């Protein structure tokens, strides 16, 4: 299992990139957002990966963040959602926007992606609502919102890697962010979020 790649960005296409790791070029499928985030050709990049194995092929999918990879896994777990459709969704919606759409049962937002009809969008929202959970907006309470900021996103990812559900991770990090303020470090966020989640 390949968890991530560290190397130089060799080439990019409409839906993929080639990462040169010590002279070996790894072809990774990628969303438009990931391709935009990777930067210029020749730059050193880190790509989080997911390996897809079928009867006739082995493919690597690449993601600019662990959070995007985690949502790819959740999306492809829904019946009728393959890698292509999941990447299409993640091309137009950030992981935070996907979480918000699902928590708010906003199928129309998901249906904006190529290849996602109203019925499939509704199925995605229905099947993932328990996994995405309702993440409370601080103070307002009108719907759901994911944590904001890269440190918060990284903290959510850290909790997901520890086995927490997306809803639990986001709720804990939101609570920690509210308490610590905007300038909180990743380490402080994770420590406090773990304490919040344990309660």
TrEMBL record:
Principal location class: cytoplasm
One function term, GO molecular function aspect: DNA helicase activity
InterPro entries the record matches: DNA_helicase_Holl-junc_RuvA_I, Hlx-hairpin-Hlx_DNA-bd_motif, NA-bd_OB-fold, RuvA, RuvA_2-like, RuvA_C, RuvA_C_sf
Membrane-traversing stretches: none
Region annotation (Domain I) ranges: 1-64
Pfam families cross-referenced by the UniProt entry: HHH_5, RuvA_C, RuvA_N
UniProt keywords, alphabetically: Cytoplasm, DNA damage, DNA recombination, DNA repair, DNA-binding, Hydrolase
Localization terms from the record: Cytoplasm
CDD domains: UBA_RuvA_C (cd14332)
Domain Helix-hairpin-helix DNA-binding motif class: 73-92, 108-127
Region annotation (Domain III) ranges: 144-199
Self-association state and partner proteins as the record states: Homotetramer. Forms an RuvA(8)-RuvB(12)-Holliday junction (HJ) complex. HJ DNA is sandwiched between 2 RuvA tetramers; dsDNA enters through RuvA and exits via RuvB. An RuvB hexamer assembles on each DNA strand where it exits the tetramer. Each RuvB hexamer is contacted by two RuvA subunits (via domain III) on 2 adjacent RuvB subunits; this complex drives branch migration. In the full resolvosome a probable DNA-RuvA(4)-RuvB(12)-RuvC(2) complex forms which resolves the HJ.
Domain free text: Has three domains with a flexible linker between the domains II and III and assumes an 'L' shape. Domain III is highly mobile and contacts RuvB.
Function summary: The RuvA-RuvB-RuvC complex processes Holliday junction (HJ) DNA during genetic recombination and DNA repair, while the RuvA-RuvB complex plays an important role in the rescue of blocked DNA replication forks via replication fork reversal (RFR). RuvA specifically binds to HJ cruciform DNA, conferring on it an open structure. The RuvB hexamer acts as an ATP-dependent pump, pulling dsDNA into and through the RuvAB complex. HJ branch migration allows RuvC to scan DNA until it finds its consensus sequence, where it cleaves and resolves the cruciform DNA.
Similarity annotation: Belongs to the RuvA family.
Name assigned to this protein: Holliday junction branch migration complex subunit RuvA
Species annotation: Sphingomonas plantiphila
Name of the coding gene: ruvA
């Amino acid at each position: 299992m390949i968890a991530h790649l560290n190397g130089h960005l060799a080439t990019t296409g409409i839906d993929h990139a080639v990462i040169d790791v010590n002279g070996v070029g790894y072809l990774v499928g990628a969303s438009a957002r990931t391709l935009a985030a990777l930067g210029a050709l020749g730059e050193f990049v880190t790509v989080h990966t997911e390996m897809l194995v079928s009867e006739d092929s082995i493919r690597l999918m690449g993601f600019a963040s662990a959070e995007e990879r985690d949502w790819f896994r959740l999306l492809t777990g829904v019946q009728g959602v393959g890698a292509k459709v999941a990447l299409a969704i993640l091309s137009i919606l950030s992981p935070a926007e996907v979480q918000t759409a699902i928590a708010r049962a906003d199928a129309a937002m998901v249906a904006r992606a190529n290849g996602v009809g109203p019925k499939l969008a509704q199925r995605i929202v229905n099947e993932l609502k328990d996994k995405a959970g309702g993440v409370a907006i601080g103070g307002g309470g009108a719907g759901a919102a994911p944590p904001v900021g890269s440190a918060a996103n990284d903290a959510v990812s850290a909790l997901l890697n520890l086995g927490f559900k997306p809803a639990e991770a986001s709720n804990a990090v939101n609570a920690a962010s509210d308490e610590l303020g905007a300038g909180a470090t990743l380490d402080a966020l994770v420590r406090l979020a773990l304490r919040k989640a344990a309660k």
